[in-house]
Each structure stands twice: as structure tokens, then as C-alpha cells.
Amino acid sequence: MKFGGTSVGKPERMYQVADLITRDNESKIVVLSALSGTTNALVGIGDALAKNNKEDAKTQIDKLEAHYHTFIAELVKTPAALAKAKAIVGEHFEFLNIITKISFNEALNKDILAQGELLSTKLFSTYLEEKGIDHYLLPALDFMSIDANDEPQLSAIKTKLSQLLKNHSDKKMFITQGYICRNSKGEVDNLKRGGSDYTASLIAAAIKATVCEIWTDIDGMHNNDPRIVKKTVAIEQLSFDEAAELAYFGAKILHPTCIWPAQHENVPVKLLNTMQPDAAGTVIRDEAGSEGVKAIAAKDGIIAIKIKSSRMLLAYGFLRKIFEVFEKYRTPIDMITTSEVAVSVTIDTDANLAAIVKELEPFGTIEVDKNQTIVSIVGNKIGSSADVLSKLFDTLKPVPVSMVSYGGSPHNISLLVADQYKIQTLQLLNSGLFGLE
Ligand code: ADP
Ligand code: ASP
Ligand code: MG
Description:
By secondary structure, this protein is of the alpha/beta class.
């Protein structure tokens, strides 16, 4: 059971989490995110220190510490529990204060980012202890690891976690941190923003759990981005592939790559609402359930690169050479379209853009369009449905679409539009494909 930032962001929410995890007597591992707003605040502190702006960092640390003191004053009631909670907050903020005094580097930044999940789990554990709820606090840094390419090491995680669980076989409930892990150098690292979902899926796969429940602030995966369009509805069931496409192409409710571990071990994933625990939510499993379009998601900040070359005409091996450039700079390509004289690809980071463009130049004329959005239409067997395609283009008449990817997968059609058309595209598709406002 994984609980996100808003699900632990207030003392009364933590009480609710305690109720939810004690509703049955099943053995479980509970993964917690940081309190909502904390990771953003820690990012701000790291940024200030990176710019050597120590005063600004100190102001931000003090503000965050005050928030935690208010939080614990309401969370626990007994003097013993409050003293313990104060000591936890004191220890972690002393650490942050020490960091402001030493020279800053990227490894230290990762330590800063880890404080949120360490605090939330220790404070929750203190509350459970006060309530007499038996549990064991499992340090994620003792079993969650990534390799030199920042990829989670599922088999090492399996081995370490099962040993830890064996050592505490008298316990039925374990609490652990989402997001944080150790890297190949043994340093504290993380699974990128939103990574607690990934932690939950990795643990579920490692222990072959009966279910992986992701508890959040909405009743499941909706058909469209509820932050952008007015009327959205929860989807009952998604296949692993459909959910992975939606998460990767922008549905913020799930970390972009968190589906594969659960899919690997065929563990169903449920998306549930902490505030409405009895709502059905969404189940993600090996079967799609119904056919047709299920949801739309958008990923913005995309860069389109077009390589135009007459030499591509009748040439084989041309695409390989182009892809090798992206491989060299470890930059994944999201979308690709080709014609006889041009190839267009999209990437989601400008980290190595200048170097990539430079290396592509010998192949032809390069055009770069920044500020693009991929809109993905996801569903079961839509990649072969002419009906979906005609509806799609009918609906999107007012929007200039610059790329279309169709047929690559049976459950995805992707379009590229400029960022300024993102909202309009999502709104038009909401009425055109779902009959919703
Ligand atoms: P948590 O802190 O629990 O991890 P997140 O904020 O990461 O929660 O994810 C939940 C949020 O995702 C929702 O509040 C909602 O605004 C947003 N969201 C974006 N797209 C979707 C979608 N298609 N379905 C449901 N929620 C979505
Ligand atoms: N706390 C981390 C973040 O805000 C991880 C997570 O919430 O999933 O990104
Ligand atoms: Mg999240």
C-alpha cells in the first residue's frame, strides 16, 4: 500500500492512513511519500545551496522546520510520543543545517532530497507506536538500489528485501520510504520525482504481492487530465500496457515508468482514493477489460527534431546512424515519423540538445522545434480502428497537428502539437472522443 504526499500531508490524513492499513489483518508493506510540499521545498533548498545562496537556504530550512513542529504538535498526544517526534524533527533539521555549512555537491543534494521520506515514515511510525499498532520500520536504503544507469535492480532488491522480511518474520506490517534508494556507488539517491509509485511497484514485484495499492487524492486514473478539463471520469480497468503508456505520456497520477515491475510479476495495481476509500478506483492488470478509447494524456516541454536529407532516398542504414547519435547521448526518442526525405523525432530533454544537433548536421538539414506537446490517446485496439482515427481528425480540425504516430502499438495514437494548443486539444478531445465537457 503506497500513500502519496497529500495522503500523509496533514495529521488527520495520517490518522486515516492508520485506519486504512489496519482495516484487515493481511501482511503488508506500507510505502510513504514525503508530506505534500516537502520535496518541492527540499528542491528549493538544494537549488539555493547550488547557487551558494546560504542565507536563502537557511530561511527555507527554518520555514520547513516550523511546519514540521506544527505538524507533530497535532499528530501525537502523549508527552513521550511528542518528545520522540521532536527528536526526529531535530535530528533531520540539524542535518540540513550542517549541510549549509559544508561545500555543496550533487551527492549532498540527493541526501537533502531524501529527508522528506525519512521524516514522514519516522513520524508516522511514532504515531503508530503511540496508538499501539504493531509494525516494523524498514529502511528503504537497506534494500532499494539502482545500477550505474539509474535502473532499479529488481533481483538485488528481491534478495535483500526477502532477507530483511525473514529477519522480522514476527511482524505483519512494515512501513518504508518511497522514492529513496542507493546508487551503484552506495550513495543515497532517488527514483526521480513521483518515484514512490515506483518503489511500491518494485516492492510488490519483489515479494510477489497479491496487490499493489496506490492510494492518492483522486479515485483512480481518469479519462483526461482533471487539472485541465472540467469533466473527467474514473476508468474502471486498464491493461498494464495502457497504464504504462498513460503514465509515460503525462498522466501525473503515476510515475512514468512505475508499471513494468508489477507487470513483470503480474501483480495487479489498484489506484485508490485515501479521501474516498470505498470508491472503486482503477484496476490495472493483464487484461484490458473493454475495447475502445479509454484516456488521453499530454506530455509538454517536448522538442521535435527534423532531419531532412535527399541522401536518405533509397539509403539503408540511415536511421541506424541517426539513432546512434541519440543512443550516444542516452536520450530516449518518444515519437518518430519518416518520409522518403525526412525523419522527425521527439525527445523530452534539452540536456544534450546542442551536441545531438551538431552530430546530426552531417546527415542533412536540421530543424529544431521546442515547446511541443505529445498528446496520447490510449485504449484497447485503437491502433487499428479507422473509426477512432476519423473521429480524432474531425475533432482536431482547429488545431495544427505536426506529427502523428499510429500503428506502432495497438493501444496508442500519439499527436504532436505546439504547447500553446495543449489545453485546447485536451478539451476538444474530451468532447469529441468522450462526449464530456
Ligand atoms: P501523490 O502525491 O498521491 O503521488 P500525485 O499528485 O502524484 O499524487 O498524483 C495525483 C494527481 O494526478 C491528481 O490529483 C490529479 O490532479 C493528477 N492527474 C493528472 N492526470 C490524471 C489522470 N489522468 N487521472 C487522475 N489523476 C490525474
Ligand atoms: N516525494 C517525492 C516527490 O515529491 C516522491 C513521491 O512523492 O512520489 O517527488
Ligand atoms: Mg505522485
